[in-house]
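About this split. The held-out portion is used to measure sequence recovery: a designer receives only the structure tokens and must propose an amino acid at every position. Recovery is the fraction of positions where the proposal matches the reference. Here is one held-out target exactly as it appears in the evaluation file.
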């Protein structure tokens, strides 16, 4: 949200509060006037016992009509106050929603920036792990990459689970293999009723560059305070599907090139000695 929009929203809130205060004050005035007129009727009835019935009746009728008018005006003001209160509530809810969206966008930006801040493969995996824990709220999960030579998907990083306990999966087999093959996200329908199964995860997200899948993110358990997925979680999953895959791919290429360069340099050193 821009600073001008934020000022406009605060100005709107202040305007609503002023309308509310003026309406409340006006209502109190009407009620006091209403009470005064009622007392006036009683006084007239008591102080003019000998007055002609027609004249007293006319005065009574006039005052009664005035009271009815004031009652209608009071009702209109009360209805307007209710409308302002409803608008204020909607405004406050929208303001909170926009603040949450701003925070989510900031978190997404930071996560994206961190993913591309290094070419070290281990650091990239660590950053992805921190994003999954801190932003998504997962407690047990694994990052699995596809070996295109064997068509097997193997865990390269885990949290809350021993890596050796996660079996490799053939491309196209089971939930994990099918997600890696199709590139489609998988979510269980009932998060609260999910029972951990290493071959049938709660969530499985493909890590892909365009349509090329290089691995999957597999989630088995959420943190205690995390009972369901919010809209920002699906945005993070989308980010991980693309940005994390690119970061992993780039860091692996860099690591492979560094190893090859080191090997070539070793041969050169042997030949020149």
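Reference sequence for scoring:
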């Amino acid at each position: 949200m821009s600073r001008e929009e934020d000022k406009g929203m605060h100005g709107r809130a202040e305007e609503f509060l002023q309308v509310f205060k003026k309406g409340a004050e006006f209502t109190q005035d009407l009620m006091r006037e209403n009470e005064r007129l009622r007392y006036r009727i009683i006084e007239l009835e008591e102080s003019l016992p000998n007055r002609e019935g027609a004249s007293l009746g006319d005065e009574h009728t006039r005052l009664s009509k005035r009271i009815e008018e004031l009652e209608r005006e009071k009702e209109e003001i009360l209805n307007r106050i209710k409308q302002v209160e409803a608008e204020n509530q909607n405004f406050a809810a929208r303001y909170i929603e926009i603040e949450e969206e701003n925070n989510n966008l900031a978190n997404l930006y930071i996560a994206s920036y961190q993913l591309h801040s290094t070419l070290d493969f281990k650091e990239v995996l660590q950053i992805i792990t921190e994003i999954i824990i801190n932003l998504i709220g997962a407690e047990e999960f694994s990052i699995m990459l596809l070996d295109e030579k064997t068509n097997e998907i193997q865990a390269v990083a885990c949290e809350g689970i021993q890596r050796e306990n996660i079996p490799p999966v053939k491309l196209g087999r089971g939930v994990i293999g099918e997600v890696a093959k199709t590139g489609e996200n998988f979510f269980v329908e009932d998060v609260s009723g999910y029972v951990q199964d290493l071959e049938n995860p709660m969530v499985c997200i493909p890590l892909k560059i365009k349509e090329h899948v290089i691995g999957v993110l597999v989630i088995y358990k959420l943190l205690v305070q995390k009972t369901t997925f919010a809209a920002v979680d699906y945005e993070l999953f989308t980010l991980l599907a693309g940005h994390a895959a690119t970061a992993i791919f780039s860091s692996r290429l860099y690591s492979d090139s560094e190893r090859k360069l080191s090997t070539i340099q070793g041969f050169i050193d042997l030949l020149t000695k």
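Annotator remark: The mean pLDDT is 79.
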